[in-house]
What we know:
Layout: E1 11-17, E2 20-26, E3 30-31, H1 51-65, H2 67-80, E4 91-94, H3 95-104, H4 111-122
Antiparallel strand pairs: 1-2, 1-4, 2-3
Amino acid sequence: MANEFEIIPEHVIMEKVKGRPVVKVFPENKILPHEIVRHSPDGFEWGYEGSGPAELALNLLHYWYGKNIAEDHYQDFKRGFIVNISRGAGGYIYKDLVGHWLTEKGVDLGKETREIIERIVKQGTESKSEPGGSSIPS
């Protein structure tokens, strides 16, 4: 019998640890770096339209897609994804959903990324409908 393993898609989990917001990047299982400090020197937050969610949106897009895409789209990303995460329960966002959302907005993510997204969409991958989960905003 062949060894089977599951490939974990890239995603982030946002949760409160001892009352403080923590954003972990998977499958690396590491804390999202706070590399760009523009709106909130105190760090990340989610679940409302404010400086902490803007900081999270900017840094997450920067981590996954680079500075130019982050600068151009983080406010829309905040409104479409970050504000919808429960402040208390936290939640998750899959990179593939964000990539699909960006390509729907006309962003060129490069040939390899486009092919992956097209394959996922073709397979009919849907977002989970669990509380705090992410979905593709229109």
